[in-house]
């Protein structure tokens, strides 16, 4: 079977394409023939050595993948041959609050990921993929979709709420889709003129180009008659948080998710205090949340927005495409 590894050196061009024996599932484990994987910004950080100093190399990268169950080990009760499944981002965060142990069970980071033709999972580390989705569509769900679902579900967003999303990456486009499902109005930013129309087609009520309007926080206030948005899905980090604090309403919410502009910088915390804001750190989500999200996706026949699909042999080109930032939604690898 074929796989890719981060060997001794970091960098997309240094990814090693390997070949080995198909692994066998032990007791309680499931062997999955992978069919598709999707890319997240985090995968770029991992592959470039910017994610964590604690990574154990060699490491199979990527957290998000789907496939078909081909063999089950002794004692497996949850799955049978032919089941269509996705791996959960945290293999050991099943439900409730995240624990220190569960946070060290992330695929393609703390443990080997899914950029391999066959992967052995613990039976609890899988969920079924919604019946109307292809393997490629299902592969977009474990990290980006679940993060967006979690970010919205902790904030009391309801019909009539206003949600602000930043940029057109995986998490933001899923946030736009889930906010629309919840009946909310969505304001979306992008730095790319060519993506403005697609944001509207995907359901954004208003689009703000943050290059043409660097004061996008002021524009968000204008678009809410000075009140501010109910929720900002904050994927920008240090470079956008100050403006997100300005754009949100009194007693509003900010879901803190990403670091697209960097993780260090000066941010004035006073607006959070004076506005009585809730700042909620979001770290993907549990298996229970994943199953709940899939029920909503299935009920509403929601389809993930896929930017492009690359073959397994072109995995490095797929990563470079993500790095280029021209994508809208998810970049997928088909096995
Ligand atoms: N906490 C968690 O559990 C979690 C989970 C998933 C992701 N994340 C983090 O969330 C962030 C987004 O991840 P992703 O996978 O969705 O990324 P992605 O798909 O690579 O999205 C990148 C997009 O972000 C936009 N962008 C770049 N700079 C921006 C800026 N200054 N202001 C606004 N938008 C900007 C661009 O959109 P335009 O071209 O439209 O401007 C770009 O295409 C990353 O930092 C990632 O590490 C965290």
What does this structure look like?
25% of the residues lie in helices and 25% in strands. The protein has two domains: 2-145 and 285-334, Quinone Oxidoreductase, Chain A, domain 1; 155-281, NAD(P)-binding Rossmann-like Domain (Rossmann fold, 3-Layer(aba) Sandwich). Helix 3 crosses helix 4 (170-181) and helix 6 (216-222) runs parallel beside helix 7. It has helices at residues 41-47, 135-138, 141-153, 170-181, 196-202, 216-222, 241-247, 270-274, 287-299, 315-324; strands at 2-5, 16-19, 29-38, 64-72, 84-87, 118-122, 126-128, 162-166, 185-190, 206-209, 229-234, 248-256, 278-281, 306-311, 330-334. By secondary structure, the protein is α/β, with parallel strands linked by helices. The protein is built from ten helices and 15 strands. The protein is globular. The strands form three sheets. Strands 3, 4, 5, 6, 7, 14 and 15 form a seven-stranded mixed beta sheet that branches. It has a six-stranded parallel beta sheet with strand order 10-9-8-11-12-13, with helices on both faces. The protein binds NADP nicotinamide-adenine-dinucleotide phosphate. NADP nicotinamide-adenine-dinucleotide phosphate is lined by residues 40-42, 143-144, 147, 166-172, 189-192, 195, 210, 235-236, 239-240, 257-261, 282-284, 322, 325, 327.
Core attributes:
335 residues; alpha/beta; Rossmann fold; six-stranded parallel beta sheet; 15 strands; binds NADP nicotinamide-adenine-dinucleotide phosphate
């Amino acid at each position: 079977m074929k796989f890719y590894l981060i060997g001794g050196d970091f960098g997309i061009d240094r990814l090693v394409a390997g070949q080995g024996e198909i692994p066998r599932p032990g007791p309680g484990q499931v062997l999955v023939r992978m069919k598709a994987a999707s890319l997240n910004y985090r995968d770029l950080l991992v592959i470039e050595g910017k994610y964590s100093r604690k990574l154990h190399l060699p490491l199979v990268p990527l957290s998000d993948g789907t496939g078909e169950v081909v063999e089950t080990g002794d004692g497996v009760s949850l799955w049978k041959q032919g089941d269509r499944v996705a791996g959960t981002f945290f293999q050991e965060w099943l439900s409730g609050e995240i624990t220190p142990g569960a946070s060290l069970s992330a695929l393609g980071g703390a443990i080997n990921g899914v950029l391999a033709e066959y992967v052995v999972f613990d039976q609890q580390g899988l969920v079924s993929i919604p019946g109307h989705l292809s393997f490629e569509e299902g592969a977009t769900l474990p990290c980006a979709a679940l993060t967006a679902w979690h970010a919205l579900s902790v904030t009391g967003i309801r019909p009539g709420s206003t949600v602000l999303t930043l940029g057109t990456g995986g998490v933001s486009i899923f946030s736009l889709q889930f906010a629309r499902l919840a009946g909310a109005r969505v304001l979306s930013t992008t730095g790319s003129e060519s993506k403005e129309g697609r944001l509207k087609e995907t359901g954004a009520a208003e689009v703000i180009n943050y290059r043409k309007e660097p004061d996008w926080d002021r524009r968000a206030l204008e678009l809410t008659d000075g009140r501010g948005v109910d929720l900002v899905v904050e994927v920008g980090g240090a470079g956008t948080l100050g403006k997100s604090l300005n754009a949100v309403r009194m007693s509003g919410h900010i879901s803190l998710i990403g670091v697209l502009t960097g993780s260090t910088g000066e941010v004035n915390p006073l607006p959070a205090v004076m506005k009585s804001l809730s700042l909620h750190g979001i770290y993907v989500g549990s298996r229970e949340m994943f199953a709940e999200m899939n029920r909503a996706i299935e009920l509403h026949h929601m389809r993930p927005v896929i930017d492009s699909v690359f073959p397994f042999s072109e995995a490095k080109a797929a990563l470079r495409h993500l790095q280029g930032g021209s994508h809208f939604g998810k970049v997928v690898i088909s096995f």
